[in-house]
Amino acid sequence: MPSIKAYIDDFNLVLVSIPRNFFGGESFGFYILDEEDKLITCEVRDRRDFEQRVVYTLSVGTTLEVGKRYYLREFHGQYVPLIYRFITHKQKFNDLFTYYKEDLGSFYHKEYTDFALWAPTANSVILKLYLEHSECYEMKREDKGVYRIRINKDLEDVKYTYLVERNGEVVETIDPYGLSSDANGRHSAVIDTTKITSICDNAKLPPFDNVCDAIIYECNVRDISSIKTSGIKNASKYVGAYEKNTKYRDYPTGMDHITSLGITHIQLQPVLDYATVDEIYPKTNYNWGYDSAQFIALEGSYSLNPKDPYSRMIEFKKLVKEYHDAGIRVNLDVVYNHMYDSSNNPLENVVPYYYFRYGEWDLLSNGSYCGNDIESRQPMVKHLFIVALKTLLNLYNVDGYRFDLMGILDVDTMNIIDKELRKLKSNIMIYGEGWDLPTALGPEEKARIFNQYQMDNIAHFNDTFRDELRGVDGGYLSSNKGYLTGDLSKAFSACSVLSANTLSDPYYLRFDSPTKSINALETHDNLTCWDKMHNCCYGESNALRMQRQKMMIAFTLFAQGIPFIHAGMEFCATKNNIKDSYNAGDDVNGMHFERIEKYEDVLNYTKKCIAFRKEHPSLRLRTKKLIEERVRFEIKDEGILFYETRDENEILKIMVNPSLEHHQYEFNDEWELVFDSTGHSLQGYFTVIQLPLCSIVILKKKAVYL
Asked: For the whole model, what pTM was predicted?
């Protein structure tokens, strides 16, 4: 059978692709039949010859009606279904079918359950219920291409799928708006949401009205407890992530360790359903989870019972509650930029070609480098995102979202998300990777750092902060030094990042507000700082590297903007020099709490830095104007940095010495030494200050005026 394909690309436009091995790609006539065998004329508008195929553009003699079956008959007798393709990206399509109500999915009541699926290009949709024996019900097509049905029986915890007939075939799929699923996402499940929302989470959290007050701690649910030295019984599970009273010898582990740090927000790597770990046998594989399979349903491999759709939901809700009870907010890392499999996922299964972005030659855009990009500009993509994020917030009471590869998404979508979510939680955190990625979007459309001025409330990971302070990662660049790893020529760049890159000439202006700069020297997909030093500080002693580690932690926490700490940085974690360890296994990625025994000094120093930041508002200035008025820099001795910041009550002078020499400085006025190289304060007032090698020292005096 020749692989002739016929695509509906507009309401009166069809493209036909004929392979060369079928009569040389030649055809001398086409017509279309609808589902009632009514003949529709068409004529060839254009022909394009390629090496392997010939493509004909046909003008259709009538306006095609979306949702009807159409078939192409060509000159040699081939009879193929017309495939709804790029018609789904036309403005008229969106005008006809964009649906604004938030009632898609399954909605449970004891007496009945309502099902609704947006599938405008489908010819029919059947609801399949997995009861003692499977039952099938034809759904009714209504306005905007929504298929509906009400089943008048108690369907709680019943598994279901949809049988969607489109483009000449029937595909069985889970629900794109499904709240949960069974193991490995085979079926969606009908959920009584009151069983989740009734889990009381009313902890009185510390006030949070300035995102610069946040101290974010990134970790992975599995990694928190995967190593035996954690002493956590329920290893690699949601419940393990909030198990209490766990220790390695006398050192707290797991949640007790995390809560002891003083951080304000924990950021969890993806907990939404992903594709590459078998949920029933999770130990057979490892993956961080940046391979999206569903946008609302939780990952089952972290659950004690992955076959039970409720189990993962209840366990995760309790995780959020326990951290809230401990005074810590919970942010989720969401991967809404691509799907793991572009051809087999609930989005493509229901409305093919609609949800993905296409570029030249009708090929999938691949700015994500994962084979596909979600087309965030489509109205029903925005709708899915908003409903999904609202649902996660309402069900689990999460506090923020980190958007993976946010530069794939468009500015308008991110602003709409921000606006809608703040209606539910005014102090929600929204931030992401605003990299300039090669997706098929115009430069001004991308939610990238260079367009930060278009997104008032959205923060971006400041890669300049990382690259200038510790050096660039990757290949031969792994030996590249930054300011804190020994390249003192980058002192000027260090001034820029200390100001959250908000100061203009002569500094490097990047953000119009410190609330937009996420300051991280280490994240999950970098070399750890400890491993980076192994590459770029070769020959330095372990003790000296510990000093540098402390200096990097202090710099992160004392810079203007939003500090971000990767789990394990506080005890010099290593990933065995693996940068992108997404599938490297538990031993590489797990939290080795036994390292605290050797690096306890670094851990204690981290806690002191966190406490110091919280105590001093001048480290958390919330506007560009305040930084311009209150922050000053001075470079001494070819690379020693003095960073001065003030508020109404005090002036802090932060002295940074990444060199391998001790320095001494004399001042005309007296200063208190409030933070020495060990994190301690000294009684008294000083005019002469010792600045040890690879250290940060902080002085303080009363503010005279502003």
From this structure: 0.97
